[in-house]
Amino acid sequence: MLPDPSLLLRHLELDWPLIGFYDAPEPSAFDPIVEPKPMTRACVFAFHKAWMAGQTLHLTRENCGCGGAGYWMFGQETRSREAFIKFLADDEGLKATHALMEAWLDHGTPYQPMHSHLFIGPLKEHLHAFLRTVTFFVNPDQLGILLLGANYHASPADPPPVIAPFGAGCMEMAPLFQDLAIAQAIIGATDITMRDQLPPDKLAFTVTRPMFERLCSIDEHSFLSKPVLRRLKAARVK
């Protein structure tokens, strides 16, 4: 059963819906769906207006929008390793040397789908079993609230509750988590190659299911109802 985020959302005052990343067997369960136009390049974030309209992006190995999503979401290689390294390091200038770029690729692991269909779109309570991550699209103030929320239950001995790893925007929605069973969050939409797909004031805060459950469990005895948050909100309406 989907945890209830209503209290958190009331204090966050988000203007975008929560977006789920799903790994599921049946596309019809996610209607209405939208898909990349075949044989054309389209970033997954180009579909954010569809998400806001209640539609879900449907991705498959054969139709995943761009080569980056194909590789990181499905492990699909559309060019040689040497060409991939050259493209990332030289054409996009993402690492200082080819050796560093290759080492980063060796360290990273594409998402391993359990089904042949992946979906990105508004949360659907009846499909919670297939949910892998949840993304909040936020402004800086909302990001600060979620950072505090992610740390609220965290012990110093726990894995880092929030990370901000280097990678493509779509990687930050699932592949960059080393273990989806850990309560953890990624500060995402930081990849400048996809930033032009979003409004300039939006970042992503993507959480695993365990972290989403933690965030939803925060109650009114927490910072959510304390003067510090009220002062922040009051400062924004002056």
Write a brief structural summary.
This protein has 238 residues and is of the alpha+beta class. It contains eight helices and eight strands; from the N terminus they run αββαβαααββαβββαα. The protein has one domain.
Account of the protein in words:
- The protein is α+β, with helices and mostly antiparallel strands and 238 residues long.
- It has one domain.
- It is 31% helix and 16% strand.
- The chain has eight helices and eight strands.
- It has an eight-stranded mixed beta sheet.
- Strand 2, helix 2 and strand 3 form a beta-alpha-beta unit.
- The longest helix is centred in the middle third of the chain and has 13 residues.
- The N and C termini lie far apart (40 Å).
- The mean pLDDT is 94.
Low-confidence stretches: none
Structural class: alpha+beta
Q: Profile the largest sheet.
A: 8 strands, mixed
By DSSP, the count of extended strands is 8
Please, how many helices?
Answer: 8
Radius of gyration: 18 Å
Quick tags:
238 residues; 8 strands; 16% strand; alpha+beta
SSE topology sketch:
Blueprint: H1 6-12, E1 19-24, E2 33-34, H2 48-52, E3 56-59, H3 67-74, H4 81-91, H5 98-107, E4 117-122, E5 131-138, H6 140-152, E6 162-163, E7 185-188, E8 203-208, H7 209-217, H8 227-236
Parallel strand pairs: 2-3, 6-7
Antiparallel strand pairs: 1-4, 1-5, 3-4, 5-8, 7-8
Helix pairs in contact: 4-5
